[in-house]
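Deliverable D4.2, example record:
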Amino acid sequence: MKENNEKYEQLDEETLFIVSQTFKALSDPTRIRILHLLGEKECSVSEIAEELSLMQSTVSHQLRFLKNLRLVKFRRAGTTLYYSIDDEHVMTLLHQSIHHARHD
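Output generated by the structure prediction step:
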């Protein structure tokens, strides 16, 4: 918290947009499940779909959303894409939210 004599700094529009999109990403149960899994290990679309009992098309759609926000990244091995976490700050938010929900 700032001291009383420090000036309040308003958030610029780009920062507001990115923060709101990050929370939007974390507001969807499917995206939370995907991020939580990718926080544990790198996975292909088919591995995510199998592990989380989701359709591959659903996983691909959600990964595209997360990749556009730079929350996940991928590497190519032959014809397979393997996804992993690209933003540890967001994972910290996610883990803190999980701990809060569990009252840990």
